[in-house]
Write a structure and sequence with these properties.
elongated; alpha+beta; 28% helix
Length: 284
């Protein structure tokens, strides 16, 4: 593993993960999209932040993905395939390239973007994101704004985007190519735009167990106890809550594990390749 010069990406070093790691990532994606019937509920389409997913009509069970991707990209619309199941080699590639433990990987989404299109507006995520560029070139903008360890709590989703009319200062711009891998820290605002043709990358959301997870688990335990749901005076409620916490054992949550890719059709594995659809898009 080698690193791109620091001047290319500032304090977000881009790693050259190598040909084998790139092949492992692409193989994981192609294994997943080969099971076309399972994709229907995981497809989303966007044009520069606007969500058009509700307008999708996917009638066929098989034989539609490549044609669909080509058609949508040709209209300047980005495709997202959510919940790509990484294989064990791809998980090891994440850890080898970034140091992020492989068993921290929570969710993997494939972003396919047409030429010179920005799929999403500036935003941040509630987890660390490992970006693995699979196809084409993509220019990333990193903004001079970050939230302190955000979580997806009720009413917080709006805070993951800039305030209306807010202008974000760009801290860094850099372009990645196939095989490049880098880490976007949790809470850091960013966006990206395809350059010189279509682009595809995996966004791999990574998170460990957080103390708040244990507190939420304790709240679930408390909710199951009738006496802690009873109406009381403020002083009595505070005492009951304190007594519960004093004797409660904090549950030791386990780290989430990576699912192995489900394979729907051996024939599909041999013939379906998302890269072919991208190469055929006008302007690539």
């Amino acid at each position: 593993m080698s690193q791109v010069a620091a001047s290319d990406s500032g304090d977000l070093p881009v790693c050259k993960a190598g040909a084998q790691a790139l092949a492992d990532f692409i193989n994981a994606v192609n294994r997943d999209v080969a099971d076309e019937p399972s994709l229907k509920g995981r497809i989303a389409v966007f044009r520069e932040g606007r969500n058009f997913t509700s307008q999708l009509k996917l009638a066929q069970d098989t034989g539609w993905f490549g044609t669909f991707v080509h058609s949508v990209l040709s209209q300047g619309i980005s495709v997202v395939v959510n919940d790509i199941a990484l294989t064990a080699p791809a998980c090891r590639a994440v850890e080898a390239a970034t140091g992020v433990p492989a068993d921290w990987v929570m969710q993997q989404n494939l972003y396919i973007t047409p030429p010179e299109v920005q799929g999403f507006s500036p935003h941040c995520d509630v987890h660390t994101v490992v970006v693995a560029q699979l196809f084409g070139r993509k220019e990333w903008a990193i903004y001079d704004k970050a939230l302190d360890n955000p979580v997806m709590a009720e009413g917080q989703k709006e805070t993951l985007f800039p305030e209306p009319g807010e202008s974000l200062a760009i801290r860094r711009r850099f372009t990645v190519e196939p095989g490049d891998v880098f880490v976007i820290p949790r809470g850091l605002f960013h966006d990206a735009c395809a350059r010189d043709g279509c682009s595809a990358h995996l966004a791999i959301g990574c998170a460990g167990i957080r103390p708040i997870d244990c507190i939420w688990a304790l709240a679930g335990q408390a909710l199951s106890q009738s006496q802690l749901r009873a109406d009381m005076s403020p002083a009595a409620a505070a005492k009951a809550a304190g007594d519960f916490l004093a004797r409660a054992a904090v549950p030791l949550a386990t780290l989430p594990r990576n699912p192995q890719a489900a394979i729907g059709s051996a024939k599909g594995l041999q013939t379906l390749s998302f890269e072919e659809s991208l190469r055929a898009v006008p302007g690539h």
